[in-house]
Structures are given as structure tokens and as C-alpha cells.
Amino acid sequence: MAASTSTPSQHPRKRDATAEHGQRRDLRYPEVPEPLGVACYDNHTHLEIEDGEVGLELDEHLELAARAGVAGAITVGGDVPSSRWQVAAANAHERLLAAVAIHPNEAPNYAAAGELDAGLNEIARLAADPRVAAVGETGLDYFRTEGETALRAQLESFEAHIEIAKRFRLPMQIHDRDAHDDVVATLRRVGAPEGTVFHCFSGDTELARIAADEGWFCSFAGNVTFKNAQQLRDALAVLPRELVLVETDAPFLTPVPLRGRPNAPYLIPVTLRFMADELGVDADEFAAQVSENTLGLYGPFGTDEREAWLEARRG
User: Fold this and answer.
1) In which band, very low, low, confident or very high, does the pLDDT at 1 lie, cut at 50, 70 and 90?
2) Residue 206: cis peptide before it, omega within 30 degrees of 0
3) What is the pTM of this model?
4) What is the mean pLDDT of residues 165-177?
5) Which of 17, 80, 161, 227 has the fewest Cβ atoms surrounding its Cβ within 10 A?
6) Cα–Cα distance measured from residue 304 to residue 181, given in angstroms and rounded to the nearest whole number
């Protein structure tokens, strides 16, 4: 059965044009990098967020990705509307799969409005769609969240997402910012879903070793290339290669030397080549390992193959 060809009609969000330090960003999309010799995948992107001088539509994102040898991407929600958008996008394009969740920074807003339970029920409904490959991004964020009530809402939401992931036998993508100890403690206390991923890994070698011991995946974004991110490179070095993934987190975290410009899945080869160089391994061999990890975790992207894979997985 072929996927639907209808495409979501608009981007729910547009990114601010100012950089982290208040400077105007260069809003030109970079040139397409030389493709790797092996197809690669973007573990985590936000295609619903429009960026650049002229925002790219889904067809344009996928065309550029194809030119760069990027065979597919997981497009990730952060609230109910964006999660619905991801599911529609993944049903329209066989090279996309969706992840659905209420972001930890959004959970307190849903709770304050008395809508957290309803929102979580909608995430569970969306998770049943065959084009949904993961529950995420969910987790804990102590950088932008303050107050006991808000933190309780984050934890309640996180635990509910863990239950949803287990119910549908889906991997889970974790947002963990300044909350490593509590994220690990929660996963151990509640029981981590099969296929737990630390998206945009932000820890150090200690967290990497914990992840390795637990069999949790660590996904690296463009910030692994930043000058001040030696702890990420050190963490990468101690991880088993079979637990490593790569992502853009686009439109954010564009890798050096393109930092500050719009990010998109087609730039995955830039980060992947950097990681291979850091590890002293052949880029194509590393790409093959990371792609094997991605497909083993999320399953095939093609609709027919995916339906058979899901039927076998869920029994």
C-alpha cells in the first residue's frame, strides 16, 4: 500500500532570526555537502519549524536530502499540534517517520491549563499510527523550568510517555537538559522502554558509560562539532558504535563551519564525517554502522515493509 501523497499545508512555527547572542543570523541555506558513499539517516529533526530567508517545504527538504545521500529522517513533535503535523508528514512521504510527544517544557503549560491528561491521550492515539516510529521528545529539562509544580508536571508527563512507548512497543527519544541524574533515576525506577535514545546527547563520559551499560542509544547533533563541546567528543569515544546515532535537531545546532545558518536533514553528512574523523574511522564504514543502528531501532521506512515489520514486532 502506498503512502498518502497529501502534505501538511503549513508550518506550525517559524524560528526567530536572531542568534543566541542577539545577533542576526545568516538565513541562507548552505550548499549541499558531498554525499557519503553509504546512505545515512537523520535520527531527529523538526520539519514543522520554518527557517531561512525562504522556508523549505517538505518536498524541498527531501530533494536536498536525496542529493546529500540522506535516505530518511525522523521528524519529531513537541506538542499536540506539531505531533499531528509529523504524523501527516510521515504519511505523505515514505522517507519520513514521525515521533510524537509533549515536550518537557510544554508539559507544565498543558498542566496549568488542565489539559495534560487530554494531551497525553491524544499522543497515545497518534502513537498507534504505523508511520510513528518513536515517542518523543520527552524527558526532563531543568534549564528552562523552575518551580515545584512545573517540575512535577514534567515528571508526570515523562512517566506517561514511558508508558505509551511501552504500550505500543516504540522506541523513546529523550530530551535531557541539566537533568541527567533524574532522567537516569526515572528510567531505572519506572523501567526504560526497549530502544531508549538520548537525543542531542548532552552528557559526559559518565552518562555515556551508564547508557552503554543499560543499552541506551546516544544521538549526536551538530553541537558535537562546536569548539566548547569536548565533553561530547569524549563521550562519543567511549560509546559502543552499535549505540551511536546522528541527528540534526534541525533547524537548530547547525554544525561547524556552518554554525548559525539554517539546519536541515541534508547536512547530516557534515556531522557524521566530523564524528568519523574524531573516532579515526572511515566515514563510509561509520555511516554504514549508524544507518544499521537507525533501521534496527526504528524499522524500515517503506510503507509495505514497515507494516510487515510492525506486525512481526507487535505479535
Assistant:
1) very low
2) no
3) 0.93
4) 97
5) 227
6) 40
Q: How far apart are CA 268 and CA 255, in angstroms?
A: 9
Burial 233-272 (b: 16+ CB within 10 A, else e): bebbeebeeebbbbbbbbbbbbbbebbebbbbbbbbbbbb
55 or 219, which is more confident: 219
pLDDT at 4 over 60: no
Instruction: Name residue, grid cell 520527552.
Output: 138
**CA of 295: how far to CAs of 14, 17, 42, 63, 267, in Å?**
30, 34, 11, 21, 19
Confidence of residue 164 (pLDDT cuts 50, 70, 90): very high
Which residues 6+ apart lie within 8 Å of 42 measured at CB? 65, 70, 72, 73, 74, 246, 247, 248, 250, 265, 268
> How, if at all, do strands 70-76 and 40-45 pair?
parallel
Report the distance separating Cα 291 and Cα 294, nearest Å.
5
Query: DSSP string covering 52-92, please?
Result: SSSPPPHHHHHHHHHHTTEEEEEEE-SSHHHHHHHHHHHHH
C-alpha distance from residue 112 to each of 90, 158, 177 (Å): 31, 16, 22
Task: Give the amino acid at 305.
Answer: E
Instruction: Give the helix, strand, coil percentages of the chain, each rounded to 5.
Output: 45, 15, 40
**Residue 192 and residue 197: Cα distance in Å, rounded?**
10
Give pLDDT, residue 284: 98
pLDDT category of residue 32 using cuts at 50, 70 and 90: very high
Mean pLDDT of the chain: 93
Residue 140: band (very low, low, confident or very high) from pLDDT cuts 50, 70, 90 = very high
CA 143 from centre of chain = 19
Q: For residues 290 and 288, give the distance between their C-alpha atoms in angstroms, rounded to a whole number.
A: 6
3-state DSSP call for residue 198? strand
Mean pLDDT of 224-235: 98
Distance separating alpha carbons of residues 6 and 162, to the nearest angstrom: 31
Give the residue ranges of DSSP H helices in 173-282. Answer: 180-190, 205-214, 230-238, 268-279
